[in-house]
Design brief:
Rossmann fold, alpha/beta, three-stranded mixed sheet, 36% helix, nine-stranded mixed sheet, 16 strands
Length: 331
Amino acid sequence: MLKTFKNKVVVVTGGTGSIGSELVVQLLKYSPKQVRVLSRDETKQYDLLEKLNYPKNLRVLIGDIRDRDRLELAFAGADIVIHAAAMKHVPFCEYNPYEVVKTNIIGSQNVIDVALKNNVKKVIAISTDKAPNPTNIMGTSKLMMEKLFINANIYRSLAPTEFSCVRFGNVSWARGSVLPLWENQIKKEGAINITDKEMTRFLMSTKEACSLVLDAVRSSKGGEIFIFKMPSVKLIDLAEFFIKKYHSDEDIKIKVIGMRPGEKLHEILATEDEILRMKDMGKIFVIERQPWWGFMGKSEIKQVSNVKKNFSYISNDPEFLVSPEKIADSI
């Protein structure tokens, strides 16, 4: 890992978010020449600098991925780009669909175009389990982002840039995720809300999420989607464990309020078609790049999978469902 980042210039878009800021912390351990944080919130940038005690090789840049000119300056001389900037909150995305298009789709294409122009070596985009078979605006936009990134490897011409993606489940304690939401609800109302007793979600820690991204930078060759092997939980079980762990001496109620606009009952991390070209690599799954067809109608690559027959990667599958006690350290 040290060799991957040592003396390199790394740009993190959305680098003051929950995942982005932790990625910055981890990257600085590998002696990069420079880490550049591109984000829109100067307060979060100030907080990050204070937290890290103003490292000499950290640069904070106010900017938006919608702005190509700003990206041109941010990416100049960069070796690696980690693209974490996005609109992520499902209900807000449902009510502001074209704002999502401008950030998650057009903004991502800007990242691709400017990376190619600046001969960036590797670009890794962060996606979500809401992208496979999407039912909401956020998931649809992230699926389109994935397609843009994976297929950028086809038309990159002589540019050396390699584009790949990682897919996350829910990240524990990330801003906007369910655990900090419940904590706020308890402070305000003395109760927490869940949308459906049968709802399940994949769950991973911030540490696991960052490890997946950094491993993807190290091992990607262009066109892959990397997925960390993660368990899933029933939200009702998670809510009960959360109360037991953090508020055992309080009378906290659980309210079932119904599903929000755009929500899925269960999430999936790979579609049936993707599983045909998915490889089990130990701690992670890797979806090999999709076969694209030449003018003679022949695929350039062979579809190969080493996962078991009839494998399904859906969050309500008993193979992945665990009790929250088994992943207590992540909660």
